[in-house]
Amino acid sequence: MHTVVVGTSGTTADDVVAVARQGARVEIAAEAVTALAAARAVVDALAAKPEPVYGVSTGFGALATRHISPELRGRLQRNIVRSHAAGMGPRVEREVVRALMFLRLKTLCSGRTGVRPEVAQTMADLLNAGITPVVHEYGSLGCSGDLAPLSHCALALMGEGDAEGPDGTVRPAGELLAAHGIQPVELREKEGLALLNGTDGMLGMLIMALADLERLYTSADITAALSLEALLGTARVLAPELHAIRPHPGQGASAANMLAVLEGSGLTGHFQEEEAPRVQDAYSVRCAPQVAGAGRDTMAHARLVADRELASAVDNPVVLPDGRVESNGNFHGAPVAYVLDFLAVAAADLGSIAERRTDRLLDKNRSHGLPPFLADDAGVDSGLMIAQYTQAALVSEMKRLAVPASADSIPSSAMQEDHVSMGWSAARKLRTAIGNLNRIVAVELYAATRAIELRRHLTPAPASRAAIEALRAAGVEGPGPDRFLAPDLDAADAFVRDGKLLAAVEQVTGPLA
């Protein structure tokens, strides 16, 4: 099994995905253990002084004015975890919780939080044992960290609350720790606060969203090319010289992908051979690289933000290299929240243009010779009429999900925390949007491949044939009389989600961007 080593200098997006989705093991580097111990010595020294230090010898948030005596500080740290583990609603997905825990561990290992090495090691032990704390949908405002989600994880480190074992069964966390020989943590000064004061949940979801969207944007380039081919459109608009004069990198990449898929097609270029020749294709076909390309450039910006966050140590207060412990506002999730919302906008537009191409394929007045709704016997058969309804419903929801969460703020903690990012909410709705986008791309794939097969007198591109053959081999049927459609659509959804469309096409084209 792959092992990810956590040091003092951050980690990579690939590491996050490996731990969250693939169950990679986690090891703490020796340099991180040294940094943890050094920072802890600073905190211990401050704890011994009479002067109050936030998070070490004071209350939290609006209660920071109270000085806490030494005998109550362990209780203070336990209490912040227990009281902040106040999430409600459905359980959050296992991969999100694992990403959240791993990213918090990454920050602990930076040596900027002041926790003891054994606290970090216990978190690594939970990850390696496949113990996943139960975290709920609601409880984070995306400021002062993802408080409730991280608190539920910290609660499990203490042997309290509920967690899911490696077999998928939810049990009391204390039982699971005991079963795996893990000793619960007895929190000391600052450690409870350090475990829950980060933007790790929203960052983890951003990183996984980028991994999903990278696959989906390339898949959407493929389905756009298939639709262009099915509509007998022209590939001349994809010529590199046309995109070089508007040099957005994402646009050029999408156009190159489409051109590679269409190489050798016998369907393209017929758009001027009809009874009423087309001078140019509709926007949803002709402007596909411009729309998808803008989304690709949005992703590039989001990756830049994610990489900066991965290089960050988000906590309050933090232990600085010179030994000072300082309060700060780095826990505010605005940088992450903005790009999460931005990605939801771009994804909604990609879904929207894909649906317009599907609708064009089904309309006999705009499909250039295809049967109505791609039906076998139109009138007796309805073909893909309602598949487009489903696609349209998904697009409509994506437009609602594109409304930015980060434009909202609700004051909390008796107005001490009077502006928040709502980044967790932005991340949650983006995950929903990505699932919808996958389904939308799958419906376009289903329609476009059927339409190409209905052009029986013309030969599709080799890459198109490879996509069709792989889709049919996956159990998704081609043209014919009406049948129960939902299983086919579900299978097409899985085909796109599992990367099988991309794999089939790249066997012909080579790697796509």
Question: How would you summarize this macromolecular structure in one to three sentences?
Answer:
The protein is mainly alpha-helical. The protein contains 19 helices and nine strands. It has two domains: about 200 residues, Fumarase/aspartase (N-terminal domain) (Fumarase C, Chain B, domain 1, Orthogonal Bundle); about 260 residues, Up-down Bundle (Fumarase C, Chain A, domain 2), CATH 1.20.200.
What report would you give on this structure?
By secondary structure, this protein is mostly helical. The protein has 2 domains: 3-198, Orthogonal Bundle (Fumarase C, Chain B, domain 1), CATH 1.10.275.10; 212-308 and 348-509, Fumarase/aspartase (Central domain) (Fumarase C, Chain A, domain 2, Up-down Bundle), CATH 1.20.200. Helices cover 55% and strands 5% of the residues. It is built from 19 helices and 9 strands. It has helices spanning 13-22, 30-47, 73-84, 94-108, 117-129, 147-157, 173-179, 191-196, 200-230, 240-244, 249-262, 283-286, 288-310, 334-362, 385-401, 423-454, 462-473, 486-497, 500-509, and strands spanning 3-6, 25-28, 88-91, 132-133, 136-138, 162-164, 170-172, 318-319, 325-326. The strands form 4 sheets. The chain has a 3-stranded antiparallel beta sheet. The longest helix is centred in the C-terminal third of the chain and has 32 residues, at 423-454. The chain is elongated. The two termini are 28 Å apart.
